[in-house]
Amino acid sequence: MRKVDPEKHAARRQVIVDAAIACFARKGFHGTSTAEICAEAGMSPGNLFHYFPTKHAIITAIVEEERQETAEFFRELHESPDLFAALLGFMDVVLGLAADPVYSSLALEIAAEAMRDEHIGELVAANDAELRAALSALIKAASGRGQIDAAIDPEAGARWIAAIIDGIFGRIAVDPGFKPDQERPMMHLLLTRFLCPKP
Amino acid sequence: MRKVDPEKHAARRQVIVDAAIACFARKGFHGTSTAEICAEAGMSPGNLFHYFPTKHAIITAIVEEERQETAEFFRELHESPDLFAALLGFMDVVLGLAADPVYSSLALEIAAEAMRDEHIGELVAANDAELRAALSALIKAASGRGQIDAAIDPEAGARWIAAIIDGIFGRIAVDPGFKPDQERPMMHLLLTRFLCPKP
DNA sequence: TATTTATTCGAGTAGTCAATCTAATAATTT
DNA sequence: AAATTATTAGATTGACTACTCGAATAAATA
């Protein structure tokens, strides 16, 4: 008999996911047909539905991919000697991602879909909880070293930093004058004033 | 002959717009069919398309309605003696709107659609420019009275306040622990530290 | 009252949708 | 080589789409 090669299988799925990301960023989840994804991936619908049972499952896979990427990023972050600089560095990365229109479109699309589809909503909420937990841990540690004002509750602070992240993607959508690479100083000012201990 | 009564005509359009808002908030622009809007509005498709030439035109009308509402709100704001308090007050209103899931869903949906549809994108960008101009004027005036740090460029400051507004709606979508009415103090702290002059 | 025209209805149109089915091919194991 | 099964294609399905059409009704003017 023949067995499924997990690596090839995963690689083929990735082709579909990447094609879907490109399409979804352009036209949204409900604006793109499975036929379009097939064309972008260079395969037949029969084949596409061999790897994913439904269109919805493709969306799910994209959200899961997002989760792994952010988790991986935070894994490296905690050993930094200057934790506040690490936080600013992370936010710089976010600003960099926002400069990519594909990433931004997708982020907004996922947020909008989270409000409509219960299942996607749960996945996205879990992702967000993970992000906030990492931010919160970072703030707590920095607070212990006197780098962040102890008056800021780590969880509440993380919540508003997450809001600022969301806001950055929102700017991309509606404000053509918002150029991520030029906004770094103002973002640093905002974060520093919000978080740093008063002299 | 008989002439079209503009008031009745407008009222009838409003029925459709309201129905569409309810549907769009639930399932998104591309997730709701015109038949669903008809059902929600209690009318036939023939009738609905008598008032709007396309589904797209209904979306346009919603964005326009949004514009008028924010413009109206700012018209009252400028005579306040305490301009910084006026700004905080406006942000409290935003937080109140965010507590309404219909309004939040729609805000996210519109932002996502702005990235896909060029026409909607332009309308939304114009709305946003108007909002930022109002915020910027407020900051400038408050800066003149010494209520806001003169080091903050009004336009840049307005841009990041707009980002925080976007972020609030983002939180609603992905963070079930974000309760608008409990987040007021932290939002005030964030804005105060960001904007107020150092002692 | 007669005429004009705005408003309303709902069946109908051409086309698109996600997903399925059948069948052929390719790769792996025995 | 034979058997098994993963992979692929592409035509097909029936439900659904935005929107139109022709006809009927209702209201307002002359």
Automatic annotation (TrEMBL), chains A, B:
<dbReference type="Pfam" id="PF13977">
    <property type="entry name" value="TetR_C_6"/>
</dbReference>
<dbReference type="GO" id="GO:0000976">
    <property type="term" value="F:transcription cis-regulatory region binding"/>
</dbReference>
<keyword id="KW-0678">Repressor</keyword>
<dbReference type="InterPro" id="IPR050109">
    <property type="entry name" value="HTH-type_TetR-like_transc_reg"/>
</dbReference>
<protein>
    <submittedName>
        <fullName>TetR/AcrR family transcriptional regulator</fullName>
    </submittedName>
</protein>
<dbReference type="InterPro" id="IPR001647">
    <property type="entry name" value="HTH_TetR"/>
</dbReference>
<keyword id="KW-0804">Transcription</keyword>
<keyword id="KW-0805">Transcription regulation</keyword>
<feature type="domain" description="HTH tetR-type">
    <location>
        <begin position="10"/>
        <end position="70"/>
    </location>
</feature>
<keyword id="KW-0238">DNA-binding</keyword>
<dbReference type="GO" id="GO:0003700">
    <property type="term" value="F:DNA-binding transcription factor activity"/>
</dbReference>
<dbReference type="InterPro" id="IPR036271">
    <property type="entry name" value="Tet_transcr_reg_TetR-rel_C_sf"/>
</dbReference>
<feature type="DNA-binding region" description="H-T-H motif">
    <location>
        <begin position="33"/>
        <end position="52"/>
    </location>
</feature>
<dbReference type="Pfam" id="PF00440">
    <property type="entry name" value="TetR_N"/>
</dbReference>
<dbReference type="InterPro" id="IPR009057">
    <property type="entry name" value="Homeodomain-like_sf"/>
</dbReference>
<dbReference type="InterPro" id="IPR039538">
    <property type="entry name" value="BetI_C"/>
</dbReference>
